[in-house]
Amino acid sequence: MNENIINPTWSAVDGYIVEQLLPKDAVLDAVLEANKAGGLPAIDVSPTQGKLLHMFAKMVGARRILEIGTLGGYSTIWMARALPEDGRLITLECEPHHAEVAKANIASAGLEAVVDIRVGAALDILPKLAAEANTQSQPFDLIFIDADKPNNANYLEWAMKLSRPGTVIVCDNVIRNGAVIDGKTSDVKVHGSRAAFEFQGSHPKLTATALQTVGSKGYDGFTIAIVE
Ligand SMILES: C[S@@+](CC[C@H](N)C(=O)[O-])C[C@H]1O[C@@H](n2cnc3c(N)ncnc32)[C@H](O)[C@@H]1O
């Protein structure tokens, strides 16, 4: 059930959506080129998903965004562009090479004053972030979890500590070609998805749902939750 299903119609329709609704963007195209040239895996969000994250940030009037899993900064740039001039996006990345490529991409997008890349394992950085005065006085408005999937529930636990009522939390890649319903699988990423569902379904302060998605990146989906 967990093999990567690719349907040419999904990609073609994604192409149509991009053509109709997403203006041509030389900066974001160059980011994907730089990621490829840098040897990064093409596991960034799709353009339509990037725009959705941008719109979520606008919908919540985000001033502070946390991202766990930067890669080359593609989703980072989409979200950071929704911030006001004095806004802040903190993004966590454990691979120094990914962070280096992301840093250059973020500079090309003119967002170096807004984006703060922290390099290291997210579970090491999150406690330090929680102790910072800025985080204590201003919790994050939007949190995007898109790193190592087995740690999803650990990241959600931290997200709760770094949030306020109204914070929106998005956790990506939780459907995994439908494998999420297979409780007997040995795939640790699927167990990470199921742990994310269990966490959000049982947390008294979270209202959550999930959407299955198809498109140029195949069949997957994300959860979205709001802190009550
Ligand atoms: C799916 S990619 C992120 C894609 C990015 N959000 C985008 O859409 O452009 C996941 C990233 O998380 C990073 N990562 C994996 N485990 C991590 C950890 N424990 N701490 C921080 N980053 C991690 C990987 O190196 C990779 O760059």
Key descriptive features of the protein:
228 residues, O-methyltransferase activity, globular, alpha/beta, Rossmann fold, seven-stranded mixed beta sheet, S-adenosylmethionine-dependent methyltransferase activity, Cation-dep_OMT, 43% helix, binds S-adenosylmethionine
How is the topology of this model organized?
Elements: H1 8-21, H2 26-37, H3 47-59, E1 64-68, H4 74-80, E2 88-93, H5 96-108, E3 115-119, H6 122-131, H7 133-137, E4 142-145, H8 152-161, E5 168-172, H9 188-202, E6 206-215, E7 218-227
Parallel strand pairs: 1-2, 1-4, 2-3, 4-5
Antiparallel strand pairs: 5-7, 6-7
Helix pairs in contact: 2-5, 3-4, 6-8, 8-9
Number of domains: 1
Q: Between the first and last Cα atoms, what is the distance in angstroms?
A: 35 Å
Structural class: alpha/beta
* DSSP strand count: 7
Beta fraction: 15-25%
Radius of gyration, whole Å: 17 Å
Uncertain regions spanning at least 5 consecutive residues: none
Q: CATH superfamily name?
A: Vaccinia Virus protein VP39
Number of helices: 9
Q: Order of strands side by side in the largest beta sheet? A: 3-2-1-4-5-7-6
CATH class: Alpha Beta
Mean pLDDT: 97
